[in-house]
Amino acid sequence: MDLKGIYLALGLTLIPWLSVAGESQWIHGAWVSLHAGPETAAEVRAQWPTNTPVRLLRRQDTWCEVEGPSAQRGFVPCDQLGDRPLAFADLKLPNPSGTNPATGHHSLEIPLQEFWISPSWDRFQAAGLAMNDLLSPEQQARELEERKPIRWKLPEFEAMKARMREGISVSSKEVIQLKVHPVRPEVANAYLPDGLPKIRSSLLQRRDELLIDGPIQQPTLDQMTALSGGRLRLTNLLRGPEYFDGKHGGQYITGFWDIAEAEIAWESPPIRHTLDTDGLLAASHIPGALVGDYFDDPDMGCGVRPHLWTAKDETPLADTPTLPTEAGILSFFVAKPLAARQALVETRVLRAKATDAEGKQTMVKVILQDIDLDRDGVPDIALWTGQTPGGISPFLTWKKVFLNIQGVWTLDQEWTEDDCT
Length: 421
Description:
Elements: E1 7-10, E2 13-16, E3 24-27, E4 31-35, E5 44-49, E6 53-60, E7 63-67, E8 73-77, E9 81-82, H1 109-117, H2 121-131, H3 137-146, H4 155-166, H5 172-175, H6 185-191, E10 211-212, H7 221-228, E11 232-239, E12 243-245, E13 251-253, E14 261-266, E15 271-275, E16 281-285, E17 288-291, E18 309-312, E19 315-316, E20 330-334, E21 344-355, E22 361-372, E23 381-389, E24 395-405, E25 408-416
Antiparallel strand pairs: 1-2, 3-6, 3-9, 4-5, 6-7, 7-8, 10-20, 11-14, 12-13, 14-17, 15-16, 15-20, 16-19, 17-18, 21-22, 22-23, 23-24, 24-25
Helix pairs in contact: 1-2, 2-4
């Protein structure tokens, strides 16, 4: 039997039981110290993140002598090495909730590993949130008593900040659901017969070519970066975590580890298009964003949706229409501006059956807008706006957005507006 093919599973890492000197290896631990000698008390010469490539020099008991970047030599625990780069599929949470059964806290190692497997803003933030669990119960109590966050510099998080300042790119397949799930006609037509028009392939060929800016599902920074096709870079740290009292009781601390608000920039600024009922397409480019207004803030008022980021220095494109904020019926992002300055919008009004709170059937109005972005006679977006019997209010407004992907209708987003009466 080939001993190189025998692996010992330890924790989250696949470890070569016997390795040959000179072999290429990769760091599998989340943040591994390089020691001058084969013991934890030995001087730390460097610290390496997941998937740092090294060359195995020799094995001494449970320690491996390796040579890494910049010809640095030293010892690391052998169980922190693997004979291939760590992949997402190799990571397994301690339990379905993603917490450590011993502490009840979220596993810190996995978010760190995920970031270094494929650096991105969302993984950077997830790692910082996991680091919040480093505080002991005593420190958490002191935070509330002194009304001041307790944070300190963590080398692993500082390394992540440095990586984000260098700039990262994101693959669509990692952050956008590329598979198209067709809307079955019998499902759509059961509620609104002939609600979705017949179509053929038109403007959109892939699911990642257009992102709807919905109130429930604002695209993440990772999705926006993948859409742009360029790199995202952390440009400025604006403020650290803050303590505040909730509007309806409770105390909260904003931020992920020592960041509460930051500024990012896109190498290739995404384009926002906003559409009105006449089809006018306002266009602006978004060079950057502010991130952090609603980190870990569970206490927002009715009608206020948590947003992941806010556009910074958004600038209208020359020779494009301008629209009042209230005039827009739909907003979406693309990588490059659409050629048309005005889309074709066909509006239909249908009546649909609905059941009120008392179980009585009633008829409600539904507005259907078929939107042809490239004016080729084939709708690219279908926007439905209707009403459903409410609780406090007589009716609540709901919306559904469908996209034409390669001639197939797929439901992209749906939401119901808050009842704030």
